[in-house]
Structures are given as C-alpha cells and as structure tokens.
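<amino_acid_chain>
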Amino acid sequence: QVRLVESGGGLVQPGGSLRLSCVASTDIFSITNMGWYRRAPGSTSEMVAAIIGDSDTRYSAFAKGRFTISRNTAENTLNLEMNNLIPDDTAAYYCHAAGYYSAGPREGRPDDFWGQGTQVTVSS
C-alpha cells in the first residue's frame, strides 16, 4: 500500500507563489510515476504535471512556464513549485502515485494511489 500526504496549499494573491509537497509512505510497493492533479469546484479532475520514471516531466498547457514538478526518489517526495498564480488555479490539488507491488501475493501487479488533497485558493 501507499500513503500520500500533501501539504503546502493555502490562500495566495494573484501573481504569488506556492510550493506543494507530497510525501509517499510505501510498504511492498514500487512507485514508478508520480504526478499532481487538480479539481476545481464544478469541474472534472485534470492533470497538472507528472514525472514518468525518474526524470521525464510532463506539463499541462496551463502549467508550462509557471509550474515546476520535481521528485526525490530516495526520499519518496514529490514537489510542485507554482509561480505567477492566477484565480483559475484555484482548486484542490491531489498527489498521485502509480507503480507495482514489489512483494507479497500481488507482486508484479500495477496499482495507483491518491492523496487526500490540499486546497489552493488564489484571490485578492
């Protein structure tokens, strides 16, 4: 199993910055990909940014140039640096991890997990 705990959300003025962090606690699970998703009120969930493997980064169009995703594999942490925030960035942000079981009865099977979310509000 994997437990993901996000932190770093809050209220920020337009043009401001926030840094989101996600700490993954794993047991018999090997994480391969991690990412950030968000869901605004009344909207569906959308990908913000992801890291495939150790270093292959992907960004949604709205995140390019403003957000930076980084991962520390040794410490099982995932960060999202968000700059020049705008009101449309207001949403609950969720950490996601995908991989496979490295031992036990489900060894080799893929699975994915979500954190509980952290709220980001951009408002003056």
About this structure: The mean pLDDT is 95. The chain is about 0% helix and 60% strand. The CA atoms of residues 16 and 31 lie 31 Å apart. The radius of gyration is 15 Å.
